[in-house]
Amino acid sequence: MKKPFSNAYESIKKLLKNIFGKKGEEVTEEISSATDQQTEEAAPEAAPEMSTDDREKLVEEVLASLEKEKKEEPKAPEVAPESKPETKKAADKSKASMTEEQKYEEEVRKRAERAAKREAEDKKKEAEEVMSSANSNRVRWVTDPVTGEEITLGKLPAEATYLKKYTRIQTTSDDVILSINSILKHPDMPKNIVILGRNGFGTVKVGEDFARSFYSLGLVSSDKIAKTKAKQLNKMGLEKLSALKGGCLIVENAGLVSFDKLVEVIKDSAPENNNYVVILTGEIDSLSNFFEENDEIVDEFIYLIDIHKIKDRGMMHLAKGYVKEKGYTAEKPIFDRLKESLKGMEEGNIDRFVARIDEVMEKCDAREAAAGSTSKQIELEDTN
Asked: N or C: which end of the chain has fewer CB within 10 A?
């Protein structure tokens, strides 16, 4: 609610702005008129006629009174000055930080949900595998990833020798067999593969085994294999891949590859261009995020090989298969020593474990070469 004379003050103030543009007598008459209007209601009787000096004195008194009233009015709360650039930047940074924190919390939540879902699926699959082992003579039925039809699992083709060791691992065997048999059954469909591992896993060697098997099976025309990390691929010009024609490209940490670059690679790898197979390897959550955000390219990657569930027991099955695949023989103490080495690795890190077995076999070769033997019999000393 406005105080008395507040409107009058503004009106008179406005009139006074024009004082210097008018003659003194005319201005006095205008001010007198305005003052008379403001005081007319207060006087029950008409005021006697005033002289010019009296009018000017009255105006001065009114103005002085109003000025005093204005000074006594409580000041409105001061509005905070606009933030300085530094303050604004700090506020923006804080806001951005909160956004990043929210994104992080959302990512943690999504990963927890995926982990819970995977755990439930793992338990279900383990139960199915136990039943399957108990009824090994029964025909195994699976879903064809291309048609969605129920088909028999079948067996791994003999030519896919590099993949045989993975069929010893219950949690991975079906994925390997199904993908190879489906690719052979549907040769006109994309042969690209995604290999899902745990955080910190090395799965490049699994990709190499698929690439070699593709060549052995006649699924690719060249035995050339190119390996690159996602960050390197993002900066790479695809003309460098022209020499890969008919072979296989393995992308490590593929969850970090840019969508645009992967689209370029898919086009470059098409049969009418360089006709090579793309094998993505990486951590399961990163790859899951990538495909959730870029579902336009999901159809180019039909086959998923899930190896993130491999425990120590599965790793030992892999070791026995790998030693046999390479033509070596080893007794139980050798495998016990290899099992001990797993304690110093991330659980299920196939690349590190296979590298360890390769090291043991190289020592065996060196020892036998010095002794003039070619028996390929691994001894305990080779594990040191």
From this structure: N
Distance CA 124, CA 3 (A): 80
Interval 132-150: pLDDT, tens: 444 445 678 889 999 999 9
b/e map of 13-40 (b: 16 or more CB within 10 Å)?
eebeeeeeeeeeeebbeebbebbeebee
Residue 168 near residue 279 (C-beta atoms within 8 A) = no
pLDDT at residue number 248 = 98
What residues pair up with 283 in beta bridges, in sequence order? 197
Q: Are 212 and 248 in contact (CB under 8 A)?
A: no
**Token pair for 379:** 């001894």
Count other Cβ atoms within 10 Å, centred on residue 345: 18
Q: Which residues of 208-234 are buried (b: 16+ CB within 10 A; e: fewer)?
A: bbbbbbbbbbebbebebbbbbebeebe
Average pLDDT over residues 286-309: 83
pTM of the full predicted structure? Answer: 0.60
pLDDT, one tens digit per residue, over 342-374 is 888 877 788 889 999 999 999 999 999 999 999
State the Cα–Cα distance between residues 49 and 58, nearest whole angstrom: 13
What per-residue confidence (pLDDT) applies to 18? 46
Give the number of C-alpha atoms closer than 13 A to the C-alpha of residue 372, restricted to the C-beta side: 0
Rounded to an integer, what distance in angstroms lies between the CA atom of residue 225 and that of residue 280?
Answer: 13
Closest CA to 357 of 164, 328, 213: 328
The full DSSP string for 58-106 is: HHHHHHHHHHHHHHHSPPPPPPPPPPPHHHHHHHHHHHHHHHHHHHHHH
147 vs 281: CA distance, rounded Å: 24
